[in-house]
Design a protein that fits this description.
Elements lengths: L2 H10 L3 H24 L16 E6 L9 E8 L4 E5 L4 E4 L27 E10 L5 E10 L10 E6 L1 H4 L4 E6 L19 E3 L4 E6 L1 E9 L10
Parallel strand pairs: 1-3
Antiparallel strand pairs: 2-5, 3-4, 4-7, 5-6, 6-11, 7-10, 8-11, 9-10
Length: about 230
């Protein structure tokens, strides 16, 4: 789905949240691009003091993903601060402050994604793995169950972004939800337009909101072509 297509879907469903999400996703892509440029710039410049809400890195993986090896890594989330966490080179999670449900008290499951929860107020570590599938698209599986605080405010949404130029150039790209590494992956946006994938052919990136940690796979093609490998 491109930016025009995404806007049409959201308008047809009479949801203002969708349009705001598209703007938010664009801002996220621009922000992280600026971070990458800054990281390559002059390091002799005196550092600026971090603010209370400064975005922090949460470990993760920065190596290029391959189809031959599975990258296994740990994510460390400071739940009280906004975070950008790498899940392979060019791929990242954007997690606002206070957006993670406390796993010690919150429920988890397909019927629970939109239920209220108490936000975590401590650092959470969890395991993940990522690789490229047979079509060369990224797949990431989060091995620790975790869901995010429901919100109607798009700036409080957790988003997942992949750099995949071939997928971003196509009209049928989706980031699908995979409950387990061996289960069929599904398009959650068919029942929740806020979970639609937004593509940016200029940067070669695709992004979407996620409400929970499980597995996610970039898919480019018609639904009838869906097939996945582990």
């Amino acid at each position: 789905m491109d930016f025009v297509g995404a806007r049409r879907v959201f308008n047809e469903n009479s949801t203002a949240e969708g349009e705001t999400f598209m703007k938010t996703a664009s801002n996220i892509l621009l922000f992280v691009g600026a971070v990458l440029l800054g990281a390559c710039g002059d390091r002799t410049t005196a550092p600026v003091a971090a603010s209370q809400d400064a975005i922090v890195s949460g470990s993760g993986a920065t190596a290029n993903l391959t189809g031959q090896d599975t990258a296994r890594f740990t994510l460390t989330i400071n739940a009280e601060k906004p975070s950008v966490i790498w899940v392979g080179a060019g791929n990242w999670l954007t997690i606002p402050a206070h957006a993670v449900c406390d796993p010690r008290t919150s429920s988890y499951g397909s019927t629970e994604w939109d239920k209220p929860c108490a936000p975590a107020r401590y650092t959470i570590s969890l395991k993940a793995k990522a690789w490229l599938d047979a079509q060369g698209h990224a797949r990431v599986d989060f091995e620790t169950p975790l869901r995010f605080v429901p919100s109607v405010v798009p700036t409080q949404w957790v988003t997942l972004t992949f750099t995949d130029r071939s997928a971003a150039d196509g009209p049928d790209v989706k980031i699908l939800y995979c409950e387990t590494p061996s289960s069929t992956c599904v398009d959650e946006s068919t029942t929740d337009p806020s979970l639609a994938t937004v593509r940016d052919p200029l940067t070669g990136r695709v992004t979407r909101r996620i409400k929970h940690f499980s597995g996610y796979n970039v898919f480019a093609g018609r639904d009838s072509d869906t097939s996945f490998d582990q």
